[in-house]
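pinging the channel bc i need a second pair of eyes. not urgent but kinda urgent?? the chain im working w is below, pasted from the shared doc
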Amino acid sequence: MFDVQSIRKDFPIFSQNENPFIFLDSASTTQKPQSVIDAVSSYYDSYAANIHRALYAIGEKATDEYEGVRKKVKEFLNVPDTHSVIFTRSTTESLNLVAYAWGQKFLNSDSEILLSEMEHHSNLVPWQLVAQKTKTSLKFISLTNDGTLDLEPIDSLFSRRTKLMSVGHQSNVFGTVNSIEMLIAEAKNVGVVTVIDGAQAVPHMQVDITKLDCDFYAFSGHKMVGPTGVGVLIGRTDLLEEMDPFMGGGEMIDTVTLEKSTWNRVPWKFEAGTPNIAQVIGLGAAIDYLKNVGMEKIHAHEKELLDYGLDVLSLNKEITLFGNADNRGAVIPFNVKNIHPHDLAKFLDTDGICIRAGHHCAQPIMNHLGVTATARASFYLYNAKNDIDALAESIEKTARIFA
């Protein structure tokens, strides 16, 4: 039995709200356990110092704690080498790093980038910008009406011009878990560099980077009970060595003269300036927390919530559910007849229920669905079935008001 009540005791926000507080927007960001908050606070109140350069005790401790998180990421995701782990501010920055540092160097007018119609703007806009600068073409894997990618026939997706493929592991709109293993294998067969947006996957399932064998994988701390302002890019070391720095400044250099500079080793080559030290340390605490709970247990609990949520919401004939993938995460996009999603979200908030409403940074998906926005409920380890019951009841109440 997954003990949600015990889990909630680890998250201070659930005990500090006197009014009902039901958080169903974890696909956007997650709440933080006390252990993560304490880890961030401990850095600031006990050993705040810059890393890598200080020759005094608290600076050495800060460096050890920061660098120790690379090892935690390596073990958590079975990354082959800690030198493949680069700390960024977010998944968005990680994807931009690849787009600019790899894309601008190796793409040209004879190149093609393969994306999908399902992508978050963060895995779409950077490639659009790079494509404009390099005269590269964009090609898209089609989105089907059930919220999955059309992978038949898969070999027709790649051409001699395809140099890079970037797709999401799990959709932030539908929750669809894409067949990235198949896509990565097919891409590798034809020498295509593979980039995976794992922002929605890493918090909810066991991800094995070695098994996936992709070239780049990106995710964020704040979606996995960690702090905001920290992301990770995992890259194949030989590709990272070939790339130019994304940003220039301190730490990413080896030698500097007035005329030229040489670069530090990977991964520090891509970590210019003072990094988000406290946030990286907080990410390490988040990884510890999730490992202690158990990713398999979290995934199974979310699957139970998803199935229950789909059953409950489908009973209301005023609700339109979007997406019907066989393999999906605990995300339910929906609309209620005659109620704009923004209005629905505000009315649900009066009952202490937090959902997302809008285009979810995926306007092409909204265009495909023929809507301007949807409501979205997303579940995590601190949610229970009674949260879903409360959501359904509040939707019915809101529908009566609008009727």
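so Residues 57-77 form the longest helix (21 residues). and Residues 37-291 form a domain with the Aspartate Aminotransferase; domain 2 fold (CATH 3.40.640.10). — does that match what u expected or am i reading it wrong
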